[in-house]
Every structure is written in C-alpha cells, then in structure tokens.
Write a structure and sequence with these properties.
- This protein has twelve helices and no strands.
- It has about 280 residues and is mainly alpha-helical.
C-alpha cells in the first residue's frame, strides 16, 4: 500500500505541476497559487464538516500550519521556474527536495533494506537525469535553476511536515484543510502586498479558467493526502522517493500536449526512475 499511495502521489503531483505551469504562462504565479488553493480549501472545508473531522483537533495540527506557510513559497518559486524553463527540465530538478523527508526518516531511525537503498539511489539518479540537465545559457535559465532549488527544499519540507500532521483519515482531512487555509492566508497576504506595490496586476480570473485552477488545487491536495497515507503505512524514505517520481509524469505530459521533445538522457532517466520504483516497491 505504501508503494501504491506514493505512486498515486507522483501521478497527481505531476499533473498538478503541468497544469500549474501552463496557467502561470498567462497568469501571475501568485494568483495561480492563491486561486487554486482557495478552491481546494473550500472543498476540504466541506469534507471536514461532513466527516466531523473537527474532533481531531490537536497539537499535531501545528505541523500542518508550518506546511501551509512553506508551501506557497515553494509553489510560487516552482511555478515561476516552470514558466521560465522547459517543464521537462525544471520539474525533475524540483524533485531533489526528496532529500529532506529521506533525511528525516533516517534521523528518526528508519533503515530501508539493501534492495530499497539500491532503489532509492537508482530512482533519484533517474529523476535527475530525466531533466536532461541544461545549466548553461542565458540568465533566465540560471534563474529558473535557482528558483527550482528553492522550491525543491520547500517541497521536501512540506512532505516531512504533512507526514507528521495526522494519524487518522479524518485527522488527515482536517490537517489538509488547515494547511490549505494557511496557504491562502499567506499567499493572499503576499498577493495583496505585491498589488499595493505595483509589482502584480490586480488578480483577474476568467470564469472559463476556474476548472483549470480547480484541477491544479485539488490534484495538489489529493497528492498531499496520498503521500501522508503512504508515509503512515511504510518507511518515509521509501514513500518520499516513490512520490518524487512526479517529474516523469510532468515531462510526459509536456511531451504529449506541448510536443516538448525528450532528449536521450531524459528517456534514460525515466527508465532508471521506473527501475528504482520497482526495487522500492518489491524490496
């Protein structure tokens, strides 16, 4: 079940990144974050009310609050990077944040077996190669790399925090709701300041674009949920590495919808990532 939930996480995050990257090419990244997360917060609020998840309130929710503050910074940096550089290059670099939850798991005493350690090494190498590293060229490319590394650390921190935010399914609904509300508050405050200072135009979202924003927000929150379930049912290191395969999904979506060509090194990286995931799931 750990492998199943973690692979579902990578699929959902990959599609959410693809959708968020497309939206950011015509809408300010901060607006994408606030609108998509607001929709997710409304849906989660309804789920919390229906399931009575309020009864799960406790000190562990502070982990969700922390994840809620870190998340918008990571998403903002990542969406800006996706708008600047090819998705098939930026997205794999964002997965380097897997080092954060893997490190936390090791510190807490988790010790994956030899096969799983091999799977971690193969999968991480595959994800990095799937980006077909392109670090030379115009300053825009360097800016995209720096933004992606910032986002990677933030994503890794969110993965580690959300895994500690709940221990039950209803508690998970409440934790994700608290995380999204915090996302909206933090992102909304940043958007307000940006508009007041003239750095960002007042947000304008066409009604016909709302389904795309809803998809991005709901896919992202669903991915957080499946990752938390994966981390609760098995080693965090294994769940984190399998969940970090989402760049392969983003790269394939970019190839299918945007006709971004995969280089040989990217195809090889995708293959290694698949081999690594098999080792992790069977180790």
């Amino acid at each position: 079940m750990t492998a199943l939930f973690a692979l579902a996480t990578s699929f959902l995050w990959g599609l959410a990144d693809f959708g968020g990257g497309l939206l950011t090419r015509r809408t300010p990244a901060l607006t994408v974050v606030v609108v998509s997360q607001s929709i997710a917060a409304v849906v989660l609020g309804a789920i919390v009310v229906v399931t009575g998840a309020w009864s799960e309130t406790g000190p562990r929710l502070w982990f969700a609050v922390a994840a809620g503050f870190v998340g918008p910074v990571a998403m903002l940096a990542f969406y800006k990077a996706l708008a600047l550089g090819p998705m098939g290059v930026v997205s794999p670099l964002g997965s380097l944040g897997v080092a954060v939850p893997v490190g936390v798991g090791l510190v807490l005493g988790e010790r994956p077996g030899p096969v799983q350690f091999a799977g971690i090494a193969v999968a991480v190498a595959g994800v990095v190669l799937a980006g077909g590293p392109q670090f030379r060229g115009a300053p825009v490319q360097r800016q995209a790399v720096l933004l992606t590394l910032l986002a990677a650390f933030g994503f890794g921190a969110v993965m580690a925090l959300i895994a500690e935010a709940s221990s039950t399914l209803t508690g998970l609904f409440l934790a994700l709701f608290v995380q999204r509300v915090t996302n909206v508050v933090a992102g909304g405050a940043a958007l307000y300041v940006s508009v007041r200072r003239g750095r960002t135009a007042p947000p304008k979202v066409a009604w016909q674009s709302l389904p795309a924003f809803a998809f991005v927000g709901l896919a992202d929150v669903a991915a957080n949920g499946t990752y938390s379930l994966a981390a609760q049912r098995g080693p965090v290191a294994v769940a984190a590495v399998l969940a970090s395969l989402y760049p392969v999904v983003t790269a394939l979506a970019a190839r299918g919808f945007l006709r971004e060509r995969l280089r040989g090194v990217q195809a090889a990286g995708a293959g290694l990532a698949l081999v690594g995931s098999v080792l992790l799931a069977t180790g």
